[in-house]
């Protein structure tokens, strides 16, 4: 599904290297988690994969189902099936949540050469998805993320994911700023989307989220590289001992 | 006729008759004009907009664009009054009669004793000359070749739609309309079209107690056209004035709006959305005077500028002594889509009452890159994402249009304009 090879990335403006050779393969249907200390490059990886400006890839590659995504525009990556749930979802005053979602769904369909969804079908579809995430009609009508609580913003991210049905979902610290109940709700939303053809890359600081979204593989990232990979037990080890031991081990 | 000549030549005499009031008003306007003189660049009020081409002897040429676009408000069920390059077109216009309306052409007014009009024609314009001179408006009152006088009673069932067609590259049109909204009446005036190579238009609106006036206009299309327009409004007790202007294209547009709130509990909202690409200069100049208790005024002006387009806003709220409980709001914002475009704003508050709430804000900025990326990351193509954000930026101004069909029509125009530019 997602294959990242020797990925080197610099900040465009500062000439500062952030990713120093990331290798990562996520197979179809798998859930991979990336953990790591602050500043290790986790969020940069998610931005580079989704096509945000300001980063320069100096070496390496990233492919989705064998297709190089690094030369694509963000909207092309989205149409190809990539989705990033933002750590800080952006507020867009003046653009209704519903309008935004319909535009997004239909843009992707158009890009893939599919028919646009009719207004009626769309409404049925979104109501069903919103209900399971406890998103009410009012939240759908309001401008995108404006005045949403932290929990509402994250639920809105998962709603978008459910509507767009991507094959590769990257969740960037989706658990940050969530209370226990909100985290459970978000995790349930993610679990409901798990399927054979869909993969997840879950970036998190805490093992707690992984109690709810059970990963197949856990990677530890430090200083721009994956330094260790293992099963779910690796996350527990971090939770109990912190990163110090792991970092020392590698050094 | 040059500006200087205009000062020495008597206003075109309308035929003798009972309408001597019109002649009197025009001569008085000519006298006002000769005292104040035509605007020049060094006038403080024209600091950001060069008036030279508006006062030059001949109208600079403006090419008439071939367009297959359906006319704005074309589907509206309205009483149409058509002017071609400032000349009334009887064949294209509807009969000037409708329940609740008295309509006469200004050029016919000389044969009539239109007593109500003489209390408005040139009168509101005169009031609006203080404290800031508006010579182009005085020139309009003195030299207007036509226009309509409209008196409204009760709730008028359909809008009056002024259609301004532009067919000559060198036309120089001066029109003056007067609207009297009688007590308790409610009327809507629509205006659209490029009008002329150079257009000087004045609209005086006298709104009686408990009456409502709605005004929606769409200026635009022809890139090289120039316009100087004035709206003068006087509001009685518990009356409402709402005006919205969409401007697309136009090498020079100066829209002045001068409002006096003279009755308690009156409400005046004036809003504008302007979108300019390239050789575009758009100036909104607004002056709202609160001279009564518990009145509300709102000014909402948004401009989207690119490729060197220029936006100007001069907006003032004057709260006179005794105008307590005034609620004044003013916002002017520009979205600059590139580094070549410019927005100059001069917000002013002058307050002589101590129990008022007035707020004002002015910003200019670029498109929000984070929002743009967020939309694109969901699959929305860049140009479409940008259009969504631009329309969202303009939304607050469009929200001032009360009638949903008219608001939708304006939105459609904007969407079409943007999709033409991004294709």
UniProtKB/TrEMBL annotation, chain A:
GO MF assignments: ATP binding; ATP hydrolysis activity
What are the ABC transporter domain coordinates in residue numbering? 2-248
Q: Which PROSITE patterns match?
A: ABC_TRANSPORTER_1, ABC_TRANSPORTER_2
Q: Which UniProt keywords are listed?
A: ATP-binding, Nucleotide-binding
User: What Pfam families does the record tag this protein with?
Assistant: ABC_tran
Keyword Aminoacyl-tRNA synthetase attributed: no
CDD domains hit by this protein: ABC_FeS_Assembly (cd03217)
Q: Which InterPro entries match?
A: AAA+_ATPase, ABC_transporter-like_ATP-bd, ABC_transporter-like_CS, FeS-cluster_ATPase_SufC, P-loop_NTPase
| Superkingdom per UniProt | Bacteria
Family membership, please give it: Belongs to the ABC transporter superfamily. Ycf16 family.
Q: Which PANTHER family match?
A: ABC TRANSPORTER I FAMILY MEMBER 6, CHLOROPLASTIC
Full protein name:
Fe-S cluster assembly ATP-binding protein
User: Which species is listed as the source?
Assistant: Litoreibacter meonggei
UniProtKB/TrEMBL annotation, chain B:
For biological process, the GO terms are:
iron-sulfur cluster assembly
Location of the SUF system FeS cluster assembly SufBD core domain: 171-393
InterPro entries assigned to the protein according to its UniProt record, in alphabetical order: Fe-S_cluster_assembly_SufBD, SUF_FeS_clus_asmbl_SufBD_core, SUF_FeS_clus_asmbl_SufBD_sf, SUF_FeS_clus_asmbl_SufD
From which domain of life does this come?
Bacteria
Which NCBIfam families has this protein been placed in?
A: sufD
Protein name in UniProt: Fe-S cluster assembly protein SufD
């Amino acid at each position: 599904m997602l294959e990242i090879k020797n990925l080197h990335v610099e900040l465009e403006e500062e000439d500062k290297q952030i990713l120093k050779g990331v290798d990562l393969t996520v197979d179809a249907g798998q859930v991979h988690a990336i953990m790591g200390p602050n500043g290790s490059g986790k969020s940069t990886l998610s931005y580079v994969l989704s096509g945000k400006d300001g980063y320069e890839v100096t070496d390496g590659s990233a492919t989705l189902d064998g297709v190089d995504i690094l030369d694509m525009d963000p909207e092309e990556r989205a149409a190809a099936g990539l989705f990033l749930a933002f750590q800080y979802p952006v507020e867009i005053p003046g653009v209704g949540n519903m309008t935004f979602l319909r535009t997004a769904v239909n843009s992707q369909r158009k890009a893939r050469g599919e028919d646009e969804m009719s207004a009626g079908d769309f409404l049925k579809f979104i109501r069903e998805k919103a209900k399971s995430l406890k998103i009410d009609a009012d939240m759908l009508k309001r401008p995108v993320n404006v005045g949403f609580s932290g929990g509402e913003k994250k639920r809105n991210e998962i709603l978008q994911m459910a509507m767009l049905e991507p094959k590769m979902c990257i969740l960037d610290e989706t658990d940050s700023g969530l209370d226990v109940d909100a985290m459970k709700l978000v995790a349930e939303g993610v679990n409901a989307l798990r399927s054979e053809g869909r993969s997840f890359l879950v970036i998190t600081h805490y093992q707690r989220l992984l109690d709810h979204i059970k990963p197949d593989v856990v990677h530890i990232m430090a200083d721009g590289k994956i330094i260790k990979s293992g099963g779910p037990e690796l996350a527990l080890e971090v939770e109990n001992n912190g990163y110090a031991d792991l970092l020392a081990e590698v050094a | 006729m040059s500006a200087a000549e205009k000062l020495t030549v008597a206003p075109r005499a309308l035929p003798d008759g009972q309408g001597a009031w019109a002649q009197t008003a025009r001569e008085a306007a000519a006298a006002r004009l000769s005292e104040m003189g035509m605007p020049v660049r060094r006038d403080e009020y024209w600091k950001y907009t060069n008036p030279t081409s508006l006062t030059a002897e001949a109208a600079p040429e403006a090419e008439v664009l071939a367009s297959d676009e359906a006319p704005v408000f074309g589907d509206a069920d309205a009483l149409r009054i058509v002017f071609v390059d400032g000349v009334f077109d009887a064949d294209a216009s509807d009969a000037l009669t409708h329940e609740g309306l008295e309509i006469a052409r200004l050029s016919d007014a000389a044969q009539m004793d239109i007593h109500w009009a003489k209390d408005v024609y040139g009168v509101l314009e005169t009031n609006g000359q203080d404290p800031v001179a508006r010579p182009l408006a005085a020139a309009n009152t003195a030299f207007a070749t036509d226009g309509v006088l409209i008196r409204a009673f009760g709730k008028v069932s359909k809008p009056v739609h002024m259609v301004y067609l532009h067919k000559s590259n060198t036309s120089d049109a001066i029109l003056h309309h007067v609207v009297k909204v009688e007590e308790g009446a409610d009327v809507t005036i629509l205006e659209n079209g490029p009008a002329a190579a150079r257009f000087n238009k004045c609209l005086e609106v006298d709104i009686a107690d408990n009456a409502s006036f709605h005004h929606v206009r769409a200026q635009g299309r022809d890139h090289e056209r120039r316009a100087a327009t004035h709206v003068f409004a006087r509001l009685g007790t518990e009356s409402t004035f709402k005006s919205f202007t969409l401007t697309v294209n136009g090498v020079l547009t100066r829209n002045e709006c001068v409002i006096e709130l003279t009755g308690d509990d009156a409400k005046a909202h004036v809003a504008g959305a302007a979108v300019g690409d390239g050789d575009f200069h758009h100036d909104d100049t607004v002056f709202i005077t609160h001279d009564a208790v518990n009145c509300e005024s709102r000014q909402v002006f948004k401009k989207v500028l690119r490729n060197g387009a220029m936006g100007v806003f001069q907006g003032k709220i004057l709260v006179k002594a005794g105008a307590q409980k005034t609620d004044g709001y003013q916002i002017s914002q520009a979205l600059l889509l590139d580094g070549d475009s410019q927005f100059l704003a001069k917000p002013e508050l002058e307050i002589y009452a101590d129990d008022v709430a007035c707020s004002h804000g002015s910003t200019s900025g670029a498109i929000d890159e984070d929002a743009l990326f967020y939309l694109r990351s969901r699959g929305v193509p860049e140009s479409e994402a940008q259009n969504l954000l631009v329309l969202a930026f303009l939304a607050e101004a469009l929200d001032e249009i009360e009638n949903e069909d008219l608001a939708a029509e304006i939105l459609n125009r904007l969407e079409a304009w943007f999709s033409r530019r991004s294709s």
